[in-house]
Predict the 3D structure of the following.
Amino acid sequence: MLVSAKEMMTKALAGKYAVGQFNINNLEWTKAILLTAQELQSPVILGVSEGAGKYMTGFKTVAAMVKAMDEELGITVPVALHLDHGTYEGCYKCVKAGFSSIMFDGSHYPIAENVEKTTELVHVANALGLSLEAEVGAIGGEEDGVVGMGECADPDECKTIADLGVTMLAAGIGNIHGKYPANWPGLSFETLAAIKEKVGDMPLVLHGGTGIPDDMIKKAISLGVAKINVNTECQLSFQEATRKYIEEGKDLQGKGFDPRKLLNPGFEAIKAKVKEKMELFGSVGKA
């Protein structure tokens, strides 16, 4: 059964660990993440970007697949199905489709408009028992065509949004989506500490978890980060394992061309990567 991420966030913040959000792109991705969460007894958040939702033919298809898979696999750990970087319209589509959590990314709006739209969505989420993530300060890199330069959020603006009653807050602290460039200066812990001071017990979200050194991840968790998003690293693991399978000519041996065989190395690689991240985040055994 899908749940809101609210209880997960409260427990993670109190226990000084983080729950991983792993983005899904198809059946293999979803199955790999759910099975790993169950094996490790870890709560998990399945993230769906609007682009991935479209690729999987729509949010209704995604919600139906996740709910059915959760039941068929006998998953007992808490699972939240979460819209990642949602538009205002996208949030309502996911509410209608049966998602248990939504993110409204109003970071590109003037703060007044971000506040107005977030306030409205807080009321909707509360009425339906869903969790809501909001964002202040664009996260760097590219996400569904939206390019951010990785600026740091204003702590006062963070407080303004946090006070609206959102479940969790994504605040830019120099993190970016995708691969980190060689000259990346690292996370701004000064900004993170200032935000934490302003928002108190609000669970914070770290986007762009791929490529951030482990010691920085651990420090961010100690400063109030309770949710960390991982996407690119799973994609790279899947790609590397699939490439190896084909380069070794295994797709030409027997029925190696069968998609169930062809996609299996990538599936196993995602499981290994999710396990590695759950152990790093400290969520193992916290279901």
Notes: The longest strand covers residues 44-49.
